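For this section, I looked closely at the sequence of one protein beside the tokens encoding its backbone, which the following lines show:
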Amino acid sequence: MIVGFQFPTIYRRSINQFTVGGHIKLKMVKLTMIARVTDGLPLAEGLDDGRDMQDAEFYKQQVKALFKNLSRGQNEASRMSIETGPYVFHYIIEGRVCYLTMCDRAYPKKLAFQYLEDLKNEFERVNGAQIETAARPYAFIKFDTYIQKTKKLYQDTRTQRNIAKLNDELYEVHQIMTRNVQEVLGVGEKLDQVSQMSSRLTSESRIYADKARDLNRQALIRKWAPVAIVFGVVFLLFWFKSKIW
């Protein structure tokens, strides 16, 4: 049951930082995944993502559940942030492809979405013509090279390049909705249950209608069978009479 996700105790901290040479440094990208929205097919992934996490698989399962919801037309916002434990999923959807990254909560939202924009632009340029025809998972796994290269550019928020991006007033993220992962995935599960219940009721209604028709048919037979028999007998009598005469 998706709504029952419980976050590992070791990660229940308000901020996830580590110290290098006495300086506090933020770890940015924990996971990066790209998937086709129409069917949830994973297209590419950061291959070394999650190696410093004890529960990387746990969060990957959440991402796959989110892709599954998106493939059903749920959570249709083209940009969204989803809080999950000490991390945040950020995603953008464009050209029927979802580009998702998971960052520490303290990492600037503005940089996270600009990172995704860079991935989107390059992925569309290199693989755009083949996205719709991809038939196997991770068909564009070689894109990992670009993911790793781009991730390094965004890793340190204090570089002149990233400070300039943070100060870019033309790129706004305030309007992007932030929700909780249990709320998002829970809604998807409830909708699934409603859909299943609706399908079951439709099926049961058809069965009931078929049974009702059978019962009506049997009632009509019981009602008119004696009359038909009487008419049949009368007809036979007249026929025999006419033959004799």
Q: What stands out?
A: Residues 9-25, 190-198 have pLDDT under 50 and may be disordered. The two ends are 85 Å apart (CA to CA).
